[in-house]
TrEMBL record:
Keywords: Hydrolase
InterPro entries in the record: Isochorismatase-like_dom, Isochorismatase-like_hydrls, Isochorismatase-like_sf
Organism: Acrocarpospora pleiomorpha
Ranges where the Isochorismatase-like domain occurs: 65-164
GO MF annotations, alphabetized: hydrolase activity
Pfam families, sorted: Isochorismatase
Superkingdom, taxonomy of origin: Bacteria
Protein's recorded name: Cysteine hydrolase
């Protein structure tokens, strides 16, 4: 069995067959007016995670979520700097009004790492939608920013309830450990 060490509430992936050829990192970015023109730090947690995933053979997808009525987000808004694909969604859920599902299926990617901003908004909504579509999801907790820190623990707890109803939760270091073994 090959799983990410220390994930909760179950060893991820649940079937114990990690394969980087089936892996995609969904780096979710929510628009915010203060982000316009932001320069991405190469040491940003999502940027580091993207490098590890790419090095193992995984696909990097920048998912730009935009709820109705929000202005379009600028291209340099958030990591990763060099995604393999950029998908623009029409709502908080990265699958809503986008071609994300067809991109993932065409590439044969069904093991998803989720990271980005904001955990309680775009990341969480995208993870729930991915799970509904049959993807095996791991939220990389320490690669997610929060819109409201007091809601963070509740968002994590929701993912893990009922034995992992929306997937599992893990850390960047645990993912890196698995990438080194693969």
């Amino acid at each position: 069995m090959t799983t990410v060490p220390g994930t909760t509430p179950y060893p991820w992936p649940w079937h114990g067959r990690f394969d980087p050829v089936r892996l995609a990192l969904l780096a979710v970015a929510c628009p915010h007016p203060a982000d316009r023109g932001q320069v991405v730090d190469p040491g940003h947690p999502v940027e580091v995670l993207a490098g590890q995933v790419r090095g193992a053979g995984g696909l990097i997808i920048s998912v730009r979520v935009r709820p109705p009525g929000w202005p379009p987000a600028p291209p340099a808004e958030a990591p990763p700097r060099r995604p393999d694909q950029v998908v623009h969604a029409a709502g908080w859920d990265g699958f809503h009004g986008s071609d994300l599902d067809s991109v993932l299926r065409a590439a044969g990617r069904d093991l998803l790492l989720l990271a980005g901003c904001c955990l309680e908004l775009g990341v969480h909504s995208t993870m729930r939608a991915a799970n509904d579509r049959g993807y095996e999801c791991l939220l990389v907790e320490d690669a997610c920013g929060s819109a409201a820190p007091d809601l963070r623990q509740g968002a994590l707890s929701t993912i893990e309830m009922s034995g992992g109803i929306f997937g599992a939760v893990g850390s960047r270091s645990a993912v890196a450990t698995l990438m080194e073994r693969s």
